[in-house]
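<context>
A single protein, sequence plus fold
<sample>
Here is the protein in question:
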Amino acid sequence: MSIWHTAFPIASANERSQGCANGHLGIELLDAGDDFLRGRIPVDARTRQPAGVLHGGVSVVLAETLASWASAYVVDPAQYHCVGQEINANHLRAVPDGWVYGVARPLHLGRSSHVWDVRLTDEADRLTCVSRVTMAVLKTPGRY
């Protein structure tokens, strides 16, 4: 059974991301299955830290991006919107180049909050970071 309120609009979401941090960092949403959202980010001059590997904060940006987009389409977007409430991350492996892929899956989809498990891997499918993201589900103003 699908978690999505409506079909997830990959192309539209990628287009909307172009003028913000997601686009500037090269984040791309790739696909949405019945219970997950998958995306990726390049490891390049925009996303590396001075030591030459993916910046840990950029891993967190990818995790929150995936959880935020996912939450936005689990709820009825005409009535609710979701905002990040808490995030944590454990960085497990340095990535010097290539792509990092992320998959967000729900741990909890409640009325007022969502909790997402986000796993990041390198191109060899080795785990690089694990993150838990909590999203607050809020009524859209004027929609009471």
